[in-house]
Amino acid sequence: MKLTIKTAENALLEASRSNPGAWVAHSRYVAEACRNIAERCQDLSVDQAYIYGLLHDIGRHAGVSSEKHLTDGYHYCMARGWKKAAQICISHAFMIQDIGTSIGKFDMSDEDYRFLKDFVAEAVYDDYDRLVQLCDSLALPSGFCLLEKRFVDVTIRYGVHPATVDRWKKVLEIKTLFEEKIGCSIYALLPGVVANSF
What we know:
The protein is an all-alpha fold. It has helices at residues 5-18, 22-38, 46-55, 68-79, 83-91, 110-122, 127-136, 147-158, 164-182, 193-197, and strands at 139-140, 143-144.
């Protein structure tokens, strides 16, 4: 099945019916942030960036879960032939390529856990992976926000883990990478970020 914006939007709509929740609005904002930043990057497709942002949490279609949504999303996308989207369903949660940096619970089968561990260690990231990692940290269900606000939001829900600060540092590093590419602050491309952050 060819992955187009319409296909991705329909997939998210269908997933929202099977498991309604704040994750759907969050996914839409992630997609918008990906699109807005990709528009300033000569080497990125705006449409692809938007699609990957839209589908990064599609594994939540299977119900409420922690890290299981990563492998659920991977399997969902691979079943449709969407290989890169499948990778991003996993890579968005591992800006540091070490399964030990997870902040969630491994609520999946032993087989899926072993697959996830190997996949994270061996995946080759590109700027689409990094862009979704960044934009995932810029979007609340209510709109765009400062990275630090999202960091606190996630930490309140998941708690503090040994890798928490290293994960923050990695996202800030990715922010700098993209700001160098686009020649301006990422926040300049996120409508309503000030109002939603304060």
